[in-house]
Design goal:
Blueprint (H helix, E strand, L loop, with lengths): L2 H27 L2 H22 L5 H19 L6 H14 L13 H9 L6 H11 L5 H7 L4 H17 L12 H20 L10 H17 L4 H14 L25 H15 L6 H14 L8 H14 L3 H14 L2 H12 L8 H13 L3 H14 L3 H18 L2
Length: about 425
């Protein structure tokens, strides 16, 4: 096999098998860092071995055995490891069994599910959970994660190392939560996945609005969760929500990289395959009759993609669903979106009335989306002076260059119209 073909096969296996191999090895060695180092060794050796021998019929099993052997070598060299003898005995027992020790996981017994709950443990701060999830489940390099979140690679590296150390020092268990813990812990896992998607879909800072690689990783993680937890309606709801949003990704910026708002998007550019998949997942979630916030948000997204044109959007239903969402998961973000929906469904004044308490809250004084929504509703109400001030506030608070340019364009258009 050629060098290029072997490298391509190893890269494909890395994307498809990294999480499975790493999760299995963590269970065997009891150490996040040791397992990751051994898995990296295995993937590095795969290129040489596959170039010589060809790609094995089951790359995942080959990599699992190779990683286990590299782990044995590392444990033998690591004489200061506290439970070295115990770990070595377990690995050598598995090695003696050969390929038979590589079993096919099933549903809740899957090591990847244990790994997801470990990476998203509430003892870790949210930034650490996100970084560790992308590193362990996505296989992204530290540099890739750092670039995605616009921080220096050494900073991200230290964040990941601290997270691994905390898992070890706090003896965070590598397990699926008990039934009584699962609803709360699953919510934390879904929040991490959705945060990854949102950072890709509408980057908080930088000169790009969309980072497709993060959207793709979040959707891939959600697909994995659906396979592992097929009866959890909110897991399917989150997948549906992200698919329906992602279907519009290609139309959200024009050829020059400028932001295109929903009402101006070319709907022929929307990914109809993504939309069909998202609607099907939403239907599978809803038939379980266990409503949750992600399912409601997916239903709102479905109303947007179902409308042939922006003017034909069923805004009363959108507003009603936001009211439902506010009861299920109250937050300023939900209230802002509800106010905008009410403004479209009834009058701009009705939307402004809903925004009033948020604008009076000092904690939201520097929350950019609030000022952007305020500007839009004031413009719709005919208050160009108030809208201009709100636009200027939103522009000053915007950290994303594409988003800021769109707000500046809206302000300029409004001012031209106001002056004749």
């Amino acid at each position: 096999m050629t060098d290029d073909a072997a490298a391509a096969a190893a890269e494909r296996a890395f994307r498809e098998e990294w999480a499975r191999v790493l999760a299995t090895l963590i269970r065997h060695v009891g150490s996040f860092q040791l397992a990751e180092d051994a898995v990296q060794d295995a993937f590095a050796s795969a290129v040489t071995a596959w170039r010589r021998d060809g790609v094995p019929a089951n790359p995942g099993a080959w990599l699992t055995v190779a990683a286990r052997r590299h782990a044995i070598d590392r444990v033998r060299r690591h004489r200061s490891l506290a439970d070295r003898a115990q770990r070595l005995a377990e690995l050598e027992r598995l090695e003696a069994r050969g390929p038979a020790a590589v079993r096919a996981p099933t549903a809740l017994d899957d090591d990847r599910l244990r790994l997801i709950f470990t990476c998203c443990h509430p003892a870790l701060d949210m930034q650490a959970r996100v970084a560790l999830t992308l590193r362990a489940l996505g296989g992204l390099t530290t540099g890739e994660i750092a670039r995605a979140f616009l921080v220096a690679e050494p900073t991200m590296g230290k964040r990941i190392v601290r997270a691994k150390r905390k898992i070890a020092d706090a003896h965070i268990p590598y397990r699926i939560p008990d039934d009584e813990e699962l609803p709360d812990r699953l919510g934390g896992v879904l929040a991490v996945v959705y945060l990854i998607f949102n950072e890709g879909y509408a980057a908080a800072a930088g000169d790009q609005l969309v980072r497709g690689e993060l959207c793709g990783e979040a959707i891939r993680l959600a697909h994995l969760l659906v396979r592992l937890m097929p009866d959890e309606a909110e897991v399917r709801g989150l997948l549906a929500l992200m698919l329906l949003h992602d279907a519009r990704r290609g139309a959200r910026v024009d050829a020059d990289g400028r932001y295109v708002p929903l009402d101006e998007q070319d709907r022929s550019q929307w990914d109809r395959g993504r939309i069909r998949e998202g609607l099907a997942e939403l239907e599978r979630a809803l038939v379980r009759r266990t409503p949750g916030p992600y399912q409601v948000q997916a239903a709102i997204a479905a109303l947007h993609v179902d409308a042939p044109t922006s003017d034909q959007t069923d805004w009363p239903r959108v507003a009603a669903l936001y009211e439902t969402l506010a009861n299920l998961a109250p937050s300023p973000v939900v209230e802002i979106n509800r106010a905008v929906a009410v403004g479209f469904a009834t009058t701009a004044q009705a939307g402004l009335a809903l925004l009033a308490p948020l604008l009076a809250d000092p904690a939201l004084e520097r929350y950019q989306p609030l000022h952007a929504a305020h500007a839009e509703l004031l413009r719709s109400a005919g208050d160009s002076g108030g809208a201009a001030a709100a636009y200027e506030n939103a522009i000053a608070l915007s950290m994303n260059a594409v988003e800021r340019a769109d707000l500046e364009r809206r302000l300029a258009v409004m001012e031209r119209m106001a002056h004749g």
